[in-house]
Amino acid sequence: RRVLLLGEGNFSFAAALCGARGTHVVATCYESEEEAAGRGGAARSIRRLRDSGAEVVFSVDCTKLKEHFLPGKREFDRIYFNFPHCGRKAGVVKNRELLACFFHSCAEVLAEQGEVHVALCNGQGGTPADRPRREWHNSWQIVAVAAGAGFILSDVRPFKAETIQGYKCTGYRSQDKSFCVEGALNHIFTRSTPPLCLSPMSCKTPLGSQEVSFQVPQVLVDKINRGFLERSSSHPVRTVKEKLSAGLSQAFPLQNISSCLPLLHQGPLHGVCHSSIFWITLSPGEAPSTEETSQGLANAVWFSHFGQDTDGDVQEGCPIPKQFYLRPSLLPDAQAIIQKGAFSPGTLHVLSGPVFRQCRITPHSTPVFHEMLVVLAVSRGTEDGCIQVLVENIKTTTSSLHQAVSGVQPSISLREATSFGTELNDFAAFECQLGEIQHFLCVGTDPDPSGSCVGVIRTDPDALKSSELVVVSASLNLDLLAMLLCGISDWRMLWTPDRRFLQQFPEGELRLFKSFSLYPPSYVHDVSFWVPDGEEFDEVAFHTLARRVSGETVVSIQLRDTFQQPGTGRRSLCYRVTFQSCDRALGCREAAEMQLRFREEIQQQLGVTLR
Question: Could you state one GO cellular component term attached to this entry (predicted)?
C-alpha cells in the first residue's frame, strides 16, 4: 500500500514506518531540503528513508497535493498528518482553514477505500473523545471541517508517541520544539458516500385484476423496492424476521404468505388521520374504470371500523374514492385472505413487507418500516391461552437474540392497552387507529428499561363466518426490533447505501452495530412564519417536507415559540430545525442551502408567510 506522510518535521515518524512490509512510504515536508536537514536528527532519518527505498519530497504544500504528484501516483491508501499547524501563533480559525483546504486536497489523491489520519493535541479536535473537551467555538471543529470535503470520522485512537520507535515530535510554532502529545488523539477519516441525487420514479403494483403504475413520493424514492426481506438479503431486518419465524414454527404449524401483496390500497379511511397517509395519484391512463372501482369496493378490504356498519357491510352513501394510498398496514391484506377463505384454522399465517406512514421526525419514527403480521384462527374461548403461547414464543426468541448479540438480558413485557397513557410511540399510536388492541409488546433496554412498543396483539371474534372461531393477530415492527437488538440508535442507518453497514452483518448473523460515522456535526436553524387565517397547521406535512428537502438529514424539529398578534389574531410559529446525518458527510454550507430550500417549500406548499 502507498502511504503519504505530510508535514514531517525531523522525519522520525516516517523513518519508523519505512520498514513495514508491503508498505511504500512517501514522506514530505513543507520546507526545502536545506531547511529540513537543519533540524535535529532529520538528516539521519532522511538517509534511512532513502536507503529503504522510500520517497522523500520537499516543499510540499498539503493544500495542493495534486500539483506535487503525477496522475498515476496519486492513489494513496493512507495519508498521515501529525499535529498540523499554520505556524507561529496562528489561532483556531486559521488552523480550521488549513484543515479545510487539506481535506479538499486529500480528496484528489486518496484511494477510494483510503484513510486520512490526523493527530491533534488533546482538546483541539472538539469531539467528545477529547478529555477535557473544549468549547466548540474554541476548537478546530475537525469533524465539521472534514465533512465539507466529503469525509466522515470513522475512528479515534490514542496517539501513543512512546510506542513509535525513534519518534520525536517537533515543529511547535515553527520551532525545533515538541508539541504536548500527552492525551493526543489520532482521528481516522474515510470517504463518505455522496449525497443522493434522487430522480422522479414510477412503480408498478397489482390493483384488483390489473397492474397499475404510480409516481413514488419523493421522500420514499430511495426506500421503495429495496428488497430487505428477499432471500438473498443479509439485512438484519430479514434476519430478525427469519429468527422469529423459526421460533414460532416450534409452537405452531406455519405458512408464509408468498403471494405478491399490493403496495396500494383503496377505499375510505374513516378513523385514520389522513395526514399520516401517503396519498397516491395513478399515472395518466392507469386509473381503473368506474365499474372496476365500484366492483373493487364491493370486494374491498376494510380495517375493522372503516366504512362498515355493525354487520361489516359497506355503508350506503360511502363515496367512491378518487385517490389511492400506499399501504399503511398489512392488516387489510390478511383480512382479504380470510374473506377469500384461503385461511386454515390452527395454522399460523405470516405476512411481511414494507408499510408506509407519514410521521413526525424522531430517531425512532419511520415513514417506512417492515411489518411482520402473524394471524391465527383458534377455537372461541381459547384465545387467551393462544395469545400467551404466541407472546411467550416471541419473548423467548427476542430475549435469546438480544443475549447472544449484547450479552444483556432485555426486559420484555406484555402491557394491557388500558395501561398506556400518552407515552405511545408513533408506531403504537397509529396501530390504535387501525382497530382495537388488547396488548402492546414492549422491549426495554438501557437506558429505557420501561420498554419501547414493537408490537401489538389483537383479537377479532367477527373476522370469520364461523361462530366457533376467533382470529388472533400480532403485528411486529421488524425495524424497531432490529434497532433494539443491534444497538442502532437511528432508524435512518437501516436504509443507508453505505456498504459498511451490511458488512457488519454476515448472512444470518446479528451483531452489535458499530457506527462508521462518529460524532457527526449538527447545524441548527430557526424558521418563523405566519399560518393562514382560520386553518389548522399540518405539522406532519411540515415534517414530511423537511424530510424531502433535506434527504432525511433533518434529525429534529422542535416548536420553540408561538405568538398571536393582538388585534388581528394572526398566529405565528417558530420552529428549530436541526440538520445532522448519521451515515454521510454533511457540511455547514450544504445544511444552510437545505434550510433556504426548506423555507421556499413551506411557503409554496403549506401557504405560510415567512417572517
Answer: mitochondrial matrix
Whole-angstrom Cα distance, residue 534 to residue 278? 25
Give the integer Cα–Cα distance in Å for 225 and 263: 10
Question: Are the C-beta atoms of residues 260 and 393 closer than 8 Å to each other?
Answer: no
pLDDT digits (tens, 9 = 90+) for 455-493: 999 988 877 777 788 899 999 999 999 999 999 999 999
Nearest in space to 99 (alpha carbons), one of 139, 46, 55: 139
CA-to-CA dists, residue 339 to 308, 344, 380, angstroms:
15, 12, 18
Whether 50 and 29 have beta carbons less than 8 Å apart is answered as no
- Tell me the three state secondary structure of residue 265: strand
Condensed to tens digits (0 to 9), the pLDDT of residues 94-116 reads 999 999 999 999 999 999 999 99
Instruction: Name the region of 411 (left: φ>0; alpha: ψ -120 to 50; beta: rest).
Output: beta
> Cell numbers 419501547 label which residue?
452
Q: How far apart are CA 6 and CA 259, in angstroms?
A: 59
Domain architecture of the chain: domains with CATH? 2-191 (3.40.50.150), 201-283+321-508 (3.30.930.10), 523-610 (3.30.70.380)
pLDDT tier, 317 (very low <50, low <70, confident <90, very high otherwise): very low
CA-nearest of 167, 28, 29, 186 to 121 is 186
Query: Cα-atom radius of gyration of the chain, to the nearest Å?
Result: 30
CA dist 206 and 282 (Å) reads 12
Query: What are 432's three cell numbers?
Result: 390504535
> What element of type H or E holds 294?
helix 290-298
Beta carbons within 8 Å of 406's beta carbon, 6+ residues apart:
445, 485, 487, 512
User: At residue 528, what are phi and psi to the nearest 5 degrees?
Assistant: -125, 145
